[in-house]
Amino acid sequence: MAIERKENDTFSGGLNCQFNATVGHNGSGTAEGEPRSNIDYVNGFSSATLKLIDVAIESQEVYLSLDYLIYPICFNMRHAVELQLKKVWKDLEDLSVYRQVVLTDHRDEKIRLDPSKRGKLEPFPAIEEASTHDLSKIWALIEEYAPLIDRRFVKFIELLTPFISDIAAIDPTGQTFRYPACNTSQVHLVDTPIINIKILKVRFTNLIEILRYLEDTSEQMKYEYSWATITKNLSHYDLIQCAHHFASFIDCGTPYPIAAKESTQSTYSIGSNEYSKVVKIVSKNKAINNVIGNDNLPDYLDFDSICTLLDQLDKVYSIDEYREQHTKEPTWSVFDFSSFSGEDMIKEMTIKRDAIKDLSTTLSKEQIAEIFALYEFYKQHCYFEIFQKLLEENIGELTSYKKKEQEQEQDYIDFIYHFFEKTNLLKNMLSSMYMLNMKVLVNQIVEKYQLSEVRWYKKLISGVIKDGLSEYCQFNSKIEKLNEITNECRAAIKVMRLPG
């Protein structure tokens, strides 16, 4: 159904398109019928806040004085925060599907304490976004439910509570900076007669950085939860923390699953069954089990089968030349067509065809599937479950070709050909193996083919390239940095504030 355009002399598109803003569904990137993300509005209101502060500081015009601009400055700031918190709640709602048991238990406990709430509570309550403006109520819900979904939110709650409390104390429902007085004619801000906008800028800039990282983390969590294995109470992040805790018991003389049991159960309030699941997940997850000292092997590949691949690859793309090319710093060069003939091309294609044919008969379909799952995995987030899915899909595809025998033999060959052509096959495959803690086997391959000086391998062993612990480490580092920034801002504001 076509939407009738509503435009007038005030709100319309202009011939000079660089000044046309996209609104509504136009440019939103959301599905038809879905509203634009709150974040678009948050970015607008928060940016307007900071720009208005700069204008108020720098301008000499009467109508741009602090006494006039303070109202839109604070209104924009407060509205940006309200919209951001509502987006946080929407993200929690999306994540709540993974914590239904915990949320239901929490709901039932509240009913046990207050039977009058029976039939009135949902495991995860809804917020009427259009009619709910009380920051304290929104924040109280976030404080209650976010930690039930993921413990990482506790770090944000600790950081954000002082900011939200400050804003809610002065403008709880968004009316203080919108009108001079409330509906009962009580004048706003009588007991807050002075607001320093430089202090406000320091505080709000700090707040925006925390909220933006919270937004990034929430989005990353939604992807993580869609892939990573979890238990009833513990997230992928928690499982990595457990792995580090297990590691501290490895040399204590007692097997770590026994030695770490009591302290782990106490820390995370989990029972024996869930603890057993945690031990099993950590030990089998090839992306994180190096924390407890595991060195893994592929499911189907081994040293000989990988050498078979590389030896066939060497017939077409010289590994000696590859080594030389990837050891030196990259340079631009012009291809010399005069040294390349049609005969050379035919010869290369023949060698390539024969090499691929040999691989199709020498390696099992599971080994071929694993080679190319490793190749594809390098480009993905480093969750072991993604690799398992790629491997499963590749085996399924190759099996379907095998079942149809000769009529589909070319499809089987084409599958190998597709990856055999990739110039970064070697890099991606060995890098993925390294990320999945198959380091002993990778180093054996590197030694055999003298790859220790290639640039990507040096980056790999130096830790520059991502692995299964990267997001865990980055989160901890960023939270620590945000705490440092917040403390620095708090110290700066203490110097800037009036005494008393």
Summed up, what is this model?
This protein is an all-alpha fold and 500 residues long.
Keywords:
500 residues; mainly alpha; 20 helices; 63% helix; globular
SSE inventory with pairings:
Layout: H1 38-58, H2 66-96, H3 100-113, H4 135-149, H5 152-170, H6 197-227, H7 236-247, H8 256-259, H9 261-268, H10 272-284, H11 303-316, H12 319-327, H13 342-362, H14 365-377, H15 384-403, H16 409-420, H17 425-435, H18 439-448, H19 455-462, H20 470-496
Helix pairs in contact: 1-2, 1-6, 2-4, 2-6, 4-5, 5-6, 6-20, 7-10, 11-13, 13-16, 14-15, 14-17
**Multimer state:** single chain
Mean pLDDT over the full residue set: 92
Sheet of most strands: none
Rg for CA atoms: 30 Å
Description:
This protein has three domains: 29-227, no CATH class; 236-284, no CATH class; 303-329 and 349-468, no CATH class. It is 63% helix and 0% strand. It is built from 20 helices and no strands. Helix 6 runs antiparallel to helix 20.
